[in-house]
Amino acid sequence: MNPIFSLLDAKLHIAGSEILWREVIGNGFGLASAIGGMRRRVWAWPIGIAGNALLFTVFVGGIFHTPQHLNMAGQAGRQLMFIAVSVYGWWSWHRHANAETGLEHRGVDPRWATTTERLVLIAGMGIGTVAFAQLFAVIGSYGPWAEAWIFTGSVLATYGMARGLAEFWLIWIAVDIVGIPLLLKAGYYPSATLYLVYAGFVAWGFAVWARALRPPRTPVDRTDARPLSAPTR
Q: How sure is the predictor about 129, in pLDDT bands with cuts at 50, 70 and 90?
């Protein structure tokens, strides 16, 4: 048998359920990419692309014969979107990192989104969810509204990460809240588990980025300090 097809078809058997190794490995790459993103490392992007390519084959189960035999167009399209946006993010972070020196160089300088950017993100989330829900329903995707929410949020979060907007972590939390029950219901247990782990991780990542955005404390000059009142005898 072709070793490539053997790898694609390799399965784990857990509690009577079949789980593809490529789903496990793809999600492992996704978690590694998230860790790199939190640390603002350029390597987060190519690692993520490798995971996206594997997970694409998982979510078009009717074509690649996964145990679920489900075509989740939103999840599959999400992986293709990740690859496209990740190419931009990889280029953007690499360019920024080359402008810095030292082993601890970063791929981006985080910042808070402006009021206009936040309004655009909120509007984009609403409009995108409605539009993609109609599309996914037409092509017979599993859970079109939930998938539309996840797909739209993933687009906005990945773009926000590439631009260095700290709010992208909050968008991921909104995606995970919907994604966990959807994937559990569909039988994609490794992906649902990753979403659960990721929900806690993104809260941590948001705290790390928010801390990096705090203004440095100005040292207090105490040379002119005087007592508030004269001592009494």
A: very high
**What letter would DSSP give residue 165?**
B
For residue 61, give the amino acid letter: G
pLDDT at 140 over 60: yes
Supply the DSSP symbol for 108.
Answer: -
pLDDT at 70: 57
Beta-ladder partners of 186: none
Instruction: Tell me: pLDDT of 233 over 70.
Output: no
The number of beta carbons lying within 10 Å of the beta carbon of residue 176 is 22
Number of residues that make up the chain: 233
- Quickly count: other Cβ atoms within 10 Å of residue 37's Cβ: 26
d(CA 167, CA 209): 9
Burial annotation 9-29 (CB, 10 A radius, 16+ → b, else e): eeeeeeeeeebbebbbbbbeb
| Lookup: tokens for 227 | 């007592």
pLDDT at 66 over 80: no
Q: pTM of the full predicted structure?
A: 0.71
User: What are the phi and psi torsion angles at 226 (to 5°)?
Assistant: -130, 150
Find where tokens 């998230």 sit: 34
